[in-house]
Amino acid sequence: MIAHMVSDVPQEKGLEPGDAALQRPWRKAVQLSSVLATANDFLADRGFERVPWLAIALGTGIVVWFVLGQPWQWVATIAIALLCAASAGYYWRERQGREYLSVAITGLGIALALGVALIWVRSELVGAAPLSRPAVVTIDGRVLAREDQPALDRTRLTLAYRDAGSGAPRKVRVNVPTSAMLDDIEDGARISLRARLIPPSPPLLPGSYNFARTAWFNGLAATGSLIGEIELLEKPPPSRWDIGRIQRALSQHVRHQVDGSPGAIAATFVSGDRSAIGANDENAMRDAGLTHLLSISGLHVSAVMAAAYLLLIRLLALWPWLALRVRLPLVATCIAAGAGVGYTLLTGAQVPTVRSCAAALLVLGAMALGREPLSLRIVAVAAVCVMLLWPETVVGPSFQMSFAAVVAIVALHRSAPVQRFMAPREEGVIRRSGRRITMLLITGLVIEIALMPIVLLHFHRAGIYGAIANVFAIPLVTFISMPLIAVALLFDVFELGAPFWWLAGHSLDLLLAIAHFTAEQSGAVKLMPQMGAMTFALFVVGGLWLALWQGRLRLYGLAPAAAGTIALLATPTPDLLITSDGRQVGIVGEGDRLLLLRDSKSAFLRDNLLEMAGTEGEPLPLDRWPGARCSREFCTVTLRRGERDWHLLLARGRTLVAERALAAACARSDIVIADRWLPRSCGPQWIKADRRLLSRTGGLTINLETGTVTTVAQSQGAHGWWPQRSR
Q: Which residues form the ComEC/Rec2-related protein domain (predicted)?
């Protein structure tokens, strides 16, 4: 009809239908109205749940606050979101053909604004300003938390004290060697010690782990290490129900019953304490895609609740008087919920555990009410609960991996092809078992695909064979290891748990064997140095579209996922990696090994540089590379990138150099890098990355072929954890 009206309009002489003179505003209004009507009809015709979309909008608002760096941008985002919500609610509230759009825009706008405001308020309430510089201080304070780390031969104490100079309260974390630790130091004790404190470290390089941000939301002003000895000034108040003390006692008891790495993993399942797991075993679990088994999450909480539910309902059914008068599923549900909450508190109440506990409680509630227990609405409600309590976790790997896995599982099992495949039918045990094993393998593969962008973003590496390893590892842990550990703890009351501990230890030996075998296979790990924010956003949009819609419409989510894959594969590896202090420089692309300016003994530094370079194997010191000319003070390197040579001058010593000689060397170089202030006479042809520049920008990555320089400061903005680096 609109097209017919347009065709009846008389054409002005000498003008064509597409000329600008014929473009009247009312035509644009008609087209816009048609688009809005189409969008409203689209929402009306598609059955979908609103809660997941509101949860996504809330999380998007939180992410927007982290991405935008200035307060005026946060205010503008809140204002625009609320304006859109108010406008849609006011103008379209009673208009025919706009009711679905009105509800959608109003709800999403309010949720988005709430997300920005929520994380902003959270940052202002809990954020702690970091120390301005490293310092040696004497601390007289209270122990807030004690974390034993036997694998690292130390104990980590979180302390609260008042600064002697300013009187300001501070919260710090101090590493204490096991030999200097006192047994009487528990949560609540008052102690005195001297410690060397440093401000929480910002990202080493663009895209690296941001400990400063984590410390900010944990209220930590500094971290450090003990100097000398600890003096116990006041013992902690007596408490029989101290969760931290019970957690440590359980962990020590389990490790005493089962030796070595199996005991450390068993202690993790019981108390959430991962501190005794060796680095080799933890790396093998990571590369095999089994790290989620070490993080108390949905698998463990669900197993505990399911075991409690089934055991109780069977036992209660043996009491006829109760079975005839009380609804047993409701009673078993309440007791199973209590078991899940207790297990969550006992294992430290980490984000994955809280999320899993909340989701499991909702599932139990749905079962008790006779509702559908497996739905995205339940997952969304659990996500909202976590975001309201800890909104900062949205940008962390734990939250993202936890919810991505659960959403993938629910979406897969609710899809029509899977429901047809798993529908009950008349068949033998072998065929039924084959279908279940096939479904388990498909589920593991889908989870690996869903988690791979998240793992690559945060850890720059992902296990390729994780789906196959999980087919064997998940049933082993769920149906053998955890039940054996639970029975062993129960029989320990009567000092009869030794046989069950022996069986549990051998089952965990098998788990470690699966992890090491998988991790050692060729191509088991995929390294990816960097993933841009837009690339990750494409994966998120594609994954959520696939999960939240039904029917063929969901297949459109493959388009952004494919675009994200292409963008990821096309992301170039930087040629130069420069740490924030300028002491370490990594050169990528000269052979299959990373070249380092200094031979560092820091495993953390070396691993970060290797991950950002996308290179495996030991790095090579620059002075051993034939293409470099090094003295005690400087190294000169020429790199061929694209169609030109790049000349680098890298400082490696601290002895003063004649200014004229330094100026001449700088003039011959394209890039000069130093961990100290260089004189103004040092003028390279492109970049002088000395202490003056790096103190403002943080770490750098440089792509020589494209001339792209990426800094840590670009992603920090005016957030509290990023200090003003004007010095």
A: 270-551
Distance CA 161, CA 307 (A): 44
State mean pLDDT over 394-406.
86
Confidence of residue 216 (pLDDT cuts 50, 70, 90): very high
Which of 208, 209, 287, 280 minimizes the C-alpha distance to 613? Answer: 208
Look at the block and give the residue holding tokens 């990202």: 203
* β-strand pairing of 169-177 with 222-234: parallel
Smallest CA-to-CA distance from 718 within 193, 268, 70 is with 70
For residue 140, give the H/E element and its range.
Answer: strand 135-149
Helix (H) or strand (E) holding 646: strand 644-651
Token pair for residue 329?
């599923």
Residue of 578, 725, 674, 652 lying closest to 682 (CA atoms): 674
Task: Beginning with the edge strand found earlier in the chain, give each strand of the sheet holding 644-651 in spatial order.
Answer: 628-630, 634-641, 644-651, 671-673, 687-689
Mean pLDDT on 544-557: 86
- Computed on alpha carbons and rounded to an integer, the radius of gyration of the chain in Å comes to 30
Mean local confidence (pLDDT), 494-499:
88
Digit-coded pLDDT (tens) for 298-328: 667 777 877 888 888 888 888 888 777 777 7
**With contact defined as beta carbons under 8 Å apart, do 587 and 599 qualify?**
no
Across the chain, mean pLDDT equals: 84
Number of other residues whose CB lies within 10 A of the CB of residue 558: 12
23-51: pLDDT as tens digits: 445 455 555 566 767 777 677 666 567 88
Q: How many other CB atoms are found less than 10 A from the CB of residue 373?
A: 16
- Burial pattern 433-444, b for ≥16 Cβ within 10 A else e, equals eeeeeeebeebb
Sheet containing 595-596, strands listed edge to edge, beginning at the edge strand earlier in sequence? 620-621, 595-596, 585-587, 576-578, 700-703, 708-711
Q: Residue 398: pLDDT above 50? A: yes
Averaged pLDDT for residues 368-379:
74
Nearest to 451 by CA among 441, 460, 443, 462: 462
Q: Are 196 and 691 in contact (CB under 8 A)?
A: no
Residue predicted with more confidence, 557 or 238: 557
Residue written as tokens 């040696």?
136
DSSP characters over 9-31:
SPPPTT--TTSGGG--HHHHHHH
Nearest-angstrom CA–CA distance, 76 and 82: 10
Q: Which residues on neighbouring strands pair with residue 142, listed in sequence order?
A: 160, 190
pLDDT in the model for residue 296: 66
At position 158, the amino acid (one-letter code) is T
Task: Tell me the per-residue pLDDT of 412-445, one tens digit each, with 9 for 90 and over.
Answer: 888 888 888 888 888 888 888 888 888 877 887 8
Share of the chain above pLDDT 90, in %: 32
User: Who's near 681: CB < 8 A, 6+ residues apart?
Assistant: 659, 662, 663, 666
For helices 376-389 and 397-414, give the axis angle rounded to 10 degrees.
170
